[in-house]
Every structure is written in C-alpha cells, then in structure tokens.
Amino acid sequence: xxxxxxxDQHWSIILASSEGMRLRSLVYRWLGRTLxxxxxxxxxxxxxxxxxxDRAARLTPPTRMITVVAHxxxxxxxxxxxxxxxxxxxxxxxNRDTAAGVFLPLTxxxxxxPQATVVLYPSDHFVYPETRFIEVVEQxxxxxxxxxxxxxxxxxxxxxxxxxxxxxxxxxxxxxxPDEPVQAVHSFLEKPGAVQADxxxxxxxxxxxxxxxxxxxxxxxxxRQCLPDIxxxxxxxxxxxxxxxxxxxxxxxxRDMPAKNFSSDLLQCVPEKLAVVELxxxxxxxxxxxxxxxxxxxxxxxxxxxxxxxxxxxxxxxPMTAAKSGLPVAx
Length: 331
Description:
There is one protein chain. The chain has helices at residues 24-31, 48-57, 74-81, 97-112, 130-146, 194-202, 216-226, 231-240, 246-256, 262-265, 290-299, 322-325, and strands at residues 10-16, 65-70, 88-92, 117-122, 126-128, 151-156, 166-170, 183-190, 206-215, 274-279, 283-285. It is an alpha/beta fold. It has a five-stranded mixed barrel with strand order 6-9-7-8-10. The protein has a two-stranded antiparallel ribbon with strand order 5-11. The longest helix has 17 residues, at 130-146.
C-alpha cells in the first residue's frame, strides 16, 4: 500500500512563524533565553515543530510540504529542520499575522498546482494520540476534495469558557453535505467577548484548531473577496516566482503588507463557505498558557521537561488521568 495515499492530490503548509509571546516568561525561566514555543521540546525528544512535521509527513511527501518561518527565527528553524530533505522552507521578511502566513506558501503552491488541496497545520499545537489526529485530517482532505467549495475546519468540543480561541457554530442542517461526518457552519466567532463565548459554549459550538483542508483556488478566491488589500501583493509575487526578481519582490511586498488575521478577516466573513469535522477521541491544546502544558501532560501520565518552579503560580493537577479518560497511556 502506498504510504502517501493522498500524496498526489494535496500539499501541506506548516505555520512556524509565531513569536510565542504568551509563553515567553516560562521559556526564559527554563532555558535562560527567549525561544518561540514551536521550537521547544516540552516533552520527549522532539520539539512541537518537529512533531508537526512528522505528522504532516505521514500524509504528504516532503516535496509537497512548505514550512513558513520568520526570518528572525532562521537559525533555530534550520537547526530543527536539519536532515529533512526535499521540503521547502519560506522565510517571512516580517510578521504580518496569519493571513500573510497562509497566503505566502499558497502563492507558491498555486504556481505549481492551482487545483490542489492544501492542509494547514499550526506548528505549536499538542495532539494525542497522533494516529487518531491523522485519521481525521485525512478524512477532512477527502471531504475537501468532494466539496471543493468548502474550507473544511477541524473543531474540538470545548471543556471551558475560552476567549482566546475561535468558536465554530455548526448549522442544524447538513443536507448539503450528505453521508459525510461533517457539518455546515452557521457562524464563526474569532476570540469573542465573554457573553458571546458563553452563549457559544452552551449552544454546542466547537473550538477552531486552525487545522483545515481546502482547495487552492477556493482559498485564493476568498482571499480576493475578504482581503483585497493583501492579495494584489501576493499576485505580484506570483509573477516573480522563479525569476531574478523573486527575492526583491518578496521583500518589497512585505514592506507594504498590512497585518490581517486569517480567522477574523477571512473565516469569520464567509461562514457559508465553511464546514467542520469534529476531532474526537484525542486531546488537543494550543498550549498557549503554561498551566495548559502541565495539565495536558498530567492527563497522559507524562511530566514536562521544564521544572514546575518555572510556572508563574502553583500548579494544581487535574484529577483526571489517562486511565480515567480512556486515552492510551504513554510509555
């Protein structure tokens, strides 16, 4: 059996340019220097970025993987990507938020495979077990191929009120998506206020993981619709790819690039173009707060690599263990 059973039909984008501000104090206490969380090894022997690359490589060959890195993180990124031959690394000249982070690699993919399906992976999220996660991602890819007019998001059932995430409100009817484990989307709220988030929590909304599968041309069309001030810049870059001016054009467009958020400035504006598949049977966290790292690892009977004294305030362990949650126990 071909290991890459969807390899000839989709690409992977790994976003690795986050600055990791929310964990900066923890990482500094632990390592004695600032380092974005995607480059940190919080457990085991691989960093969050390396985990993400390995997950993506289970569905996509290296030649169809693009990792987006901040130019300022070049040294750390190259050290962790050493030995991973064949994939592409794009260095963003400046941080212009997630819309630019998505459409920069998309520009290069579109130049080679405009009808391809792409999967986007943030590089700083924790998922366990990974095998179950890959199963759902592959499912989302197949749905995106059969429904090329939809961005297929992966959502998670919330366990608390959370103001730092996007919330996906599934539609009541899925008649337009028959016989598939997917729901249409009624609305999308990016980092809502407390009242909106509480209403979303009680109405069955899901957290947005920002992992999604979608057709390249659909994303480009929605970019033109929702992000009219950045798409001409990337269209200018697309004309320069492979030519002597490519590097200069890339630098130039980022000098003019406005900061736009992919979730609030695009996804929130086109709920009718969204669908959602729920991630079930696994743990997911963006590890945006130090206590989330420790709590998540306690649930799978693992200890973090950093001393608990690095936390800002005393850690109170969750009573739930891997055995009680029904998840496999890590060894």
